[in-house]
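Write out the 3D structure for:
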Amino acid sequence: MGSFGSAGSSVPVPIASVAKVMTGYVTLREHPLGAGQAGFAMTVTAAQVAEQRQRLGVGQSTLPVRAGEQISERQALQALLLPSANNVAAMLATHDASSVAAFVARMNTTARALGMSSTTYTDPSGYDATTVSTAADQLRLARAAMRMPAFAAIVDERSAELPVAGTVENLDGLLGEDGYVGVKTGSDRAAGGCFMFAKHITVGSLELTVLGVVLGQREGSLIGAALASARRLGDSAAASVRLLTVLPARTRVLTATSADGRHATVVTKGALRELGWGGLTLPVNVAASRVVTSRLRAGQRLATVTVDGVGAPSTAAVARQSLGGPSLGWRLAHLL
């Protein structure tokens, strides 16, 4: 629909585990999941078990795994997006592209395709401080990812049952409160607290989703700071959205001119109302109808006026007054 804008620096910064949103997005683009589908299966290797232990030993977020166990695509995405398992990010990357490096190249290619010009991925988990982006770029990714039903469903889960690990919890502490339905937390010393969020709101009869991203939050616990900042931002945005009158009824949009130079005002037949907020600019399009007539009647339709917004409301534009045929003097002056 539109943007509330942004605040803070536009310089790319580390984004920690918010990077896993792109890992999940690329995986689902390559391997779409329907409702209830498990997707592909991965068999855990001894090397992956050793890697998990190594990552855990240096304080990374991981999912316990056991050699020979099977993990489905859906379970892997749950491990990736709920408890934020770095080792599962690497497993998905290797399964999808045969190597982490090749998968990271796909992440960056996808970022360019989405217009994320200030983003560089160097790993699939966000553990590397060299994986950097901006809030504006991550918001572009949020729009694309949340259009995927499987992705949106997984990030809205409070917990999941996974092999070996058992029950894992979603780190998103806002989930289920006041319409918040995801998306992904991230935190480390380099990135601070980060959170990509989605919040469902209702305005009139319309269901809308507010998306936002906060990065670099450091007041108190990192994830707590990110969640608190996101709540303030999301709640403020939700309170600002309302149904507005873009053009009142009988607003002049055109002028009709007769052959002899007389004029008739063309006005909107009805009011045009659209969702918006203070400062939002919405394009208004006026498409003139092809009318061939010697006389113009009051109320005759001459155009269609449309607002380029969520509902794309439209109304007719009609003549406010009649215009008769050309005067006798004009007709005599213009005899063939």
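The CA atoms of residues 6 and 136 lie 7 Å apart.
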